[in-house]
Amino acid sequence: MYKTVEETAKDISMPAEQVLRYIYEGRIKAVHDGEQFLINSTQFDTYHEQLDRIKEEIEIWRNTPIPEDPDVKDED
Fold first, then answer.
1. Does 6 map to a domain?
2. Which residue range forms the structural domain that includes residue 11?
3. Please, which domain of life does this record's source organism belong to (predicted)?
4. Distance of alpha carbon 30 from alpha carbon 20, whole angstroms
């Protein structure tokens, strides 16, 4: 499925100007139909999967308690 620059920008929470800049830089692949750029939305599936996985890992890291260090206590 192809989306316009504006639709893609809304989906990935990014300004449309930045999406266009990424297209010109080659960071986002798009086709030009003579009037506008069209972006294949499946190329962002991996991006969204990785973003979700990173968010889960950060949440696990935040909820993991810091273990007690046995060397902290002075036994003298």
1. yes
2. 2-63
3. Bacteria
4. 10
